[in-house]
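Interim report to the steering committee. The following record documents the input for histidine kinase (610 residues).
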Amino acid sequence: MEKRLLFFCLLLLSCYLGWGQSSELKNIQASLPKIKDSLRYVDALNRMATLLYEKNADSTFYYTRMARDIAERHHYERGKADAMNNLGIFFDIKGNFQLALKYYNEGYTGYKKMVDSVNSVQALMNIAMVYQEMGKDDKAIQRYDQAFRQARQLRTDSIRSLVIYNYLLSYPARFSRDSTRYYINVAKQIAAKYKDKRTLVAIDQLIADDLISHGKRAEGLALLEQTIATAIDQKLYYVSMDMHIDIAQQLEKTDPEKSVAYYSQALAIAEHNDYLFYSEILTRKLFEFYDTRGDHAMAGNYSKKLIDIHDKEAKLNNQSGIDYIDYALKDEQVKALEGRYMYQVALTILSCIAFLLAVFMIISIRKHLRRSKQQNNQMKEALSALEQSQADNTRMLRIVAHDLRNPMGGIYSVTSMMLEETDRPEEDQIMLDLIKTSSQHSLELVDNLLQLQFSSEELNKEPVDIAEMLRYCVSLLNSKAAAKEQQLSLEVIPAVVAASREKLWRVISNLIANAIKFSPSGTRINVKMMQKEHDIRIVVKDEGIGIPPEMSEKIFDLFTEAKRPGTAGEQPFGMGLAISKQIVEAHKGRIWFENNEARGTTFIVDLPFS
């Protein structure tokens, strides 16, 4: 029942707040023949449709359909949006939730285009309540949250009281006790500001339910009784329906006689005002009560009333002559035809454009075909020249690097000998140490440059004992690891691979040296060798600083920017891994890395083995 009250309380808002329904309806009906302006006429029809749904839903449909037709002829967007909203009301009353959602959503889209924030919030609330009626609570809460946020940003806050009220009544568990009290107070202040009697009465019902649910049953029931009396006194009969059902349900177990009295009072009001929807619900409640008690005479009376109500509903539906489902289907068919027509027009235009473009392209292709042949010849010549230039540059680079090696080696040797002399001043020793370090780095750079740009055909392959090579590399680099208090461990198996001994040694040396360079003191570096089905796998695992994701795609690039100093400030050149990759791929192998789960990196090399 609460869902229906939420829905009906909201719908009375329409475009403007106003609750004097009977007098307002009479005034509109009287003024309708005098309205000459088509847009004002549409607004009047839509307002009448909104006010009539309690008495006769078919009248709501009739006036809404008329308003929509006129609004579409005059391209009156607001009139169309209001009509869509009223169609949503109509189909919701009829219990067709899918069509109700369709028209509510079209109304919401129209309001959004017009930047009508108030009615957009209202439409969102309508959609939320339909989803709630369908049992789709996730979607209902999503729309309520959206309406709740937007209502706070409105300059005119009249709609906010209804958003708060409906959300609290629909999903009280979404709010803490303090939040519930706060929002009830906010809604009450807004309703009082706009003299909104219906919402004020409805909020009192909300307060009563809150008291009952938090242990103040007597106080809550008293307030609920007072709220019902206020609603009847103000002739808010439709609003009082759900309040009667609310209190009757609260009293069913504790005071069944009083519960039946409220059901009976509500039924009398519903019958007097011709509320067939509530008449059926209340009659069923009373039938179930007397049937459970075994009072078959009274149960039979209410059973007969139920049959009379169903007969009356069927008679009204037959008399109305409105096939509203057929209307919705035709509405969709008209839209589909309009869309198909626009599609065909667009397709014709596009076909003409495509034909002209095809003619133009054929002419252009014929013109450019000759040019492309000439350009291809020129590109071949340029590519040949570029390849020759690259080969010359590579050869020159190797010559320069080779010639630089001897003087750099001499500088390194001389400075090493000078540093061994004990009587040199400390300042000289610092300068000599800097020269030695720089010459050492230069030698490493020269060695790297000499390794660049080679192919598999240039490799001088021979049988290489991989286990022996790994032992040699580890023994050479043990002192370097010991200087950083690191421990090198090695696991090998017997295996011989056809490879370039010098090139492969450089790969292994690079990987182990990098592990030492980028690992902190006191860590362990594991070098392991294993045999796969067709490969020999070499694994170098460290506990270092790892490789961040943003550098992972660049570390194997030549002259990469993904360079970092070692944990002890070691100088990076950024070419070692690129050279290693060239060497491994020249051996028809594969090299890659994986970041360890805890810390550090594992580099893996697979070499073909037979």
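The chain has 21 helices and seven strands. The committee is asked to note this result when reviewing the revised timeline.
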